[in-house]
Design a protein that fits this description.
By secondary structure, this protein is α/β, with parallel strands linked by helices. It is built from twelve helices and eleven strands.
Length: 361
């Protein structure tokens, strides 16, 4: 009887053991930050695409699960504070708006110093991200900020000029105050007496409404999202080009603690997110222009000759950028040629050859 009872107990224990999973799922908390509001395209898609995609891929093995804690719209950092916030560990993963940090992240300006080449977010995002992987310069810049580079994002199809008063040509920008951010303010140096006023996307509505500026450089999807037609009902369609402005990064201390499986998934999904957001930007471009017009906006097309004239009047910012990196023993000139070569291979040749001045620097 005693032997039979022992067998029953042993059988129950074995049955219980087989009912348990082979390994318990480890939960990893990740704080995601951006200073822009949740309605901004790249933030919304981080919530709606990046996070679910990571969860889906991790669920295939069941070894790890993310506990996402999202904080946007200035709760932890302002738009310009993401780089510092990730550096200090205020967030584990963030979307850095790189145009605010030209001194710390100079190589990220590669598409900004080559305007009037490609009005295609997909082509620019892919080309810039490939440059970041082929040349270590970009990744080293983020390493100095205690961050690991995951992928570059392009959220705009092309910069356009939005105006408070009616415009009919680029010459209407002469002597005017124009809002911009980062390197795009230098485009105004090619326009007589135009003055650039630095601001962020969340500032442009008030800057235009109060008359602090007459015009602003942004893109149609953002104009729709932030209701720019209410204060700037005229859009000068100049197709300045797409620019990389967002980079997904991870705090380096947080990264070191992550299992390899989670690191691999984050890297894979970052590239998928890059292409997803760029694709959305292009898909929404035409609809956003239509929405702008429906809200009372008027779109004025400029000629190719005007675009060429503006491009040629801009200082040689591309060669200046490349020379600055070259002096730091970084391959700026090679990066510039490789980047433009990628765009050329994708079918985009600019109205100005931004490599022409390299030999003289």
């Amino acid at each position: 009887m005693f032997e039979w009872s022992k067998r029953l107990v042993l059988g129950a224990v074995l049955a219980g053991l087989t009912a348990l999973p082979a390994t318990a799922t480890e939960t990893i908390k990740a704080v995601v930050i951006d200073g822009y509001p949740a309605r901004a395209l790249w933030v919304k898609e981080f919530s709606d695409f990046f996070i679910p995609e990571v969860d889906k891929r991790l669920a295939q093995t069941g070894a790890y699960k993310m506990d996402w804690q999202e904080s946007y719209g200035g709760a932890i950092v302002k738009p310009k504070g993401v780089l510092e916030g990730i550096k200090l560990g205020l967030g584990d993963i963030g979307i850095v708006t790189t145009i605010f940090h030209s001194s710390k992240l100079p190589s990220q300006a590669i598409s900004a110093v080559t305007p009037f080449v490609a009005a295609d977010a997909r082509a620019v995002a892919k080309a810039v991200d490939e440059i970041a992987r082929e040349f270590p310069t970009m990744q080293r810049e983020f390493e100095k900020q205690n961050q690991v580079y995951l992928a570059t994002g392009v959220v705009l199809d092309t910069y356009q000029v939005f105006s408070r008063t009616e415009v009919s040509s680029v010459s209407d920008l002469e002597g005017a105050k124009v809002a911009g951010a980062g390197m795009n303010l230098r485009y105004l140096e090619g326009i007589k007496d135009a003055a650039g006023v630095r601001g962020g996307l969340t500032d442009f509505y008030n800057m235009l409404q109060t008359g602090l500026v007459d015009h602003a450089m942004l893109w149609p999807e953002a104009a729709k999202t932030f209701k720019i037609a209410e204060v700037a009902p005229y859009m000068l369609r100049v197709d300045i080009g797409a620019v990389n402005t967002k980079t997904v990064t991870v705090n380096a201390d947080f990264w070191k603690k992550l299992p390899d499986e989670v690191k691999d998934v984050l890297k894979e999904v970052a590239i998928a997110y890059r292409d997803h957001v760029a694709g959305l930007a292009m898909d929404r471009a035409a609809a956003s222009r239509a929405a702008y017009e429906a809200a009372g906006g008027k779109i004025v097309e400029v000629s190719l000759a005007e675009r060429e004239a503006w491009a040629q009047a801009i200082p040689d910012i591309a060669s200046e950028w490349a020379a600055g990196l070259d002096k730091r023993n970084e391959p700026g000139s090679e990066m510039l040629k490789a980047y433009l070569g990628k765009l050329d291979g994708a079918g985009y040749k600019g109205v100005r050859d931004w490599t022409a001045g390299l030999a003289t620097n």
